[in-house]
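# step 3/5: fold
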Amino acid sequence: MSPVVETDVLIVGSGPAGASAALALSTYGVPNIVVTRYASLADTPRAHITNQRTMEVLRDLGVEQDVIARATPQHLMGNTTFCTSLAGEELGRVRSWGNDPLVQAAHELASPTRMCDMPQHLMEPVLVDAAVARGTSLRFQTEYLSHTQDADGVTVTVRDRLRGDTYEIRAKYLIGADGGRSRVAEDLGLPMGGQMGVAGSINIVFEADLTKYTAHRPSTLYWVLAPGATVGGIGAGLVRCVRPWNEWMIVWGYDVTAGAPDLTTEYAESIVRQLVGDDEIPVTIKSSSAWTVNEMYAETYSHGRVFCAGDATHRHPPSNGLGSNTSIQDSYNLAWKLKLVLDGTAAPRLLDTYTAERAPIGKQVVTRANQSIGETAPIFEALDGLSPQTPEQLWANIAARKDTTEAAEKQRARLREAIAFKVYEFNAHGVDLNQRYASDAVVPDGTPAETFARDPELHHQPTSRPGARIPHAWITSGTRTLSTLDTVGKGRFTLLTGIGGEGWVRAAAVQDIEIATVAVGPGQEYEDPYGDWARLSEISDAGALLVRPDGFVAFRHATAAPDAEALLKDALRRILGHA
């Protein structure tokens, strides 16, 4: 056997979770190795919706502009269309992904970033290239076989698939980011809720110039109501834009109890023709693959020195576009904690907060994504399309909505309402941004429990409460305009205060950990010309917010405090696991 390879953190998997873990760790100066059993990064689009919170993470990690340069921009994402085929009748649209004027305003107010459509085969190279440039060692065709852990680290046995031999990698910590069939999670015995394989789906990636059917209603998703489309639970055949307007992916269902069909080129092209509705347009099939719709989530994300992230811990359909977003955010949450434990700043118990904070989010995401599938049914119901019937009867039901009868008018109203209700899948701004953490890495401030003024799945509610992401506000420093989120992160804690908060600034300077200080107010390093921060900070000018490296508020004190040093020291002891 070859000599043992050593590193601080070994990451199994190079997908969104593994790649972003590597990028964050290398950005923080933590030695890490990524192994993947494959010979390349993702070669199909797979995950694609990239929400504002993930863009904030990528902004902090210094790759936001690289993603923007390759992604489909927000304004080309949002005319989610329901139709009988791309060339056929249109049944209705939903302004989606922040493109409704009111939702767009909410997006602008919530974050310095814009969401975009970044297919996984384009996202992974951005993350991995930056990680490798900053120090990550990447090993392709290296298969995880097993691991054992002890008090000091984890010994992982891997197989080089080129040479055929096995060797060991010794790491202080192991991250299993090896997807929905995670062997690391299986070996770790993570307790799981829910079930796998609840329905079957097929992805068909193809090239075709569909400009004449799509450019006038630009969108990421076109949902096609067609006979047989309800098989598999997706609710309709889906034509997804990968690159406007000539690279596409179709999602089509199959009966999981009968097994996947033979994915021949002829079969794939027949599905493409049916959903596009044009038998003449040139089509090139690039790939076809079968997968299952899952509804499973891990109740615990780690055991000892081994952690799991991404699809290894939350397995769900692509509804709401939450998969890669949640995966990247898992790794971002874990990386700064590993860094502080590895350099001795924090106690190992800080790592227990990873499960406490991310497992509830994973469960919420799995539940929401599967619920969104069910919320497609009313569209079929409005057209009497759920009961078994011939294609001719379905088309007659669809045509009936154009009649001048009272029944047809009611049908049109039901269809409009059913399509509008899909806002819970396509504009769930609160699901994206209203994450709240409750763990030992958050110090409650004794204020009453938070209540939401509007539906928390649809609407973002900014707050500076401990356990919430710091609110975004535009502030200035000299001639620069920047977001409050731009003042935090970068792998260190940040204390925000204002005029009269000098005691907090002095307290931050004498702690045993680096704390950046940000004073906001007239004549300070940062000013609040619009008054937005004064309103959103929810503290007085002399109060203080202590923000973690991941942008979440860890400690809040509404006013000046004569014992600021002691208060801050006690808060940090608790947050860092020394209490």
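# step 4/5: annotate
The first strand starts at residue 5 and ends at 12.
# step 5/5: archive (pending)
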